[in-house]
């Protein structure tokens, strides 16, 4: 199942990593372990932010993908289930059933 991981880095932790030159290496190391489908880096509400798309087999993998961001950057992490168009297409019948029952 796909998840969108959003990690907002603590300002002080991100600045410290940038100053010591480890920011890029740390991010590369985390991404090498997590093997994301996609990774984007933005500024969100004034903080360095990673947006990572991951395909996880089981919810028990969530700590393994969240902890590196917590530990390396004192990040706030949000993980949200996500769908690609094929997933949404397969969900069509259940959406139609919900419309029939509750719509």
**Tell me, what is the CATH class?**
Alpha Beta
Outline, from the CA principal axes?
elongated
Strand ordering within the main sheet: 2-3-1-4
The radius of gyration computed from the alpha-carbon positions, rounded to a whole number of angstroms, is: 17 Å
Total DSSP helices: 4
Give the strand content: 25-35%
Average the pLDDT over all residues and give the rounded result.
96
Report the major sheet.
4 strands, antiparallel
Order of helices and strands: EHHEEHEH
**Helix fraction bin:** 40-55%
CATH level 3 topology: Alpha-Beta Plaits
Q: Find the count of extended strands (DSSP E, 2+ residues).
A: 4
Provide a concise account of the structure shown.
Strand 2 and strand 3 form a beta hairpin. The protein contains 4 helices and 4 strands.
Topology summary:
Blueprint: E1 2-8, H1 11-20, H2 23-34, E2 38-44, E3 47-55, H3 62-73, E4 76-82, H4 85-102
Antiparallel strand pairs: 1-3, 1-4, 2-3
Give a verbal description of the structure:
The chain has a 4-stranded antiparallel sheet, covered by helices on one side. The two termini are 27 Å apart. The chain has a single domain (2-102), classed as Alpha-Beta Plaits (2-Layer Sandwich), CATH 3.30.70. The radius of gyration is 17 Å and the shape is elongated. The chain has helices at 11-20, 23-34, 62-73, 85-102; strands at 2-8, 38-44, 47-55, 76-82. The protein has 103 residues and is α+β, with helices and mostly antiparallel strands. Strand 2 and strand 3 form a beta hairpin.
């Amino acid at each position: 199942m796909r998840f969108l991981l959003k990690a907002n880095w603590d300002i002080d932790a991100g600045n410290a990593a940038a100053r010591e030159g480890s920011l890029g290496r740390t991010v590369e190391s985390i991404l090498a372990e997590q093997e994301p489908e996609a990774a984007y880096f933005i500024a969100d509400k004034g903080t360095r932010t990673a947006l990572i798309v991951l395909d996880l087999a089981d919810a028990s993998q969530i700590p393994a993908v969240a902890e590196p961001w917590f530990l390396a950057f004192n990040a706030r992490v949000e993980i949200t289930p996500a769908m690609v168009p094929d997933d949404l297409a397969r969900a069509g019948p259940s959406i139609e059933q919900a419309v029939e029952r509750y719509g």
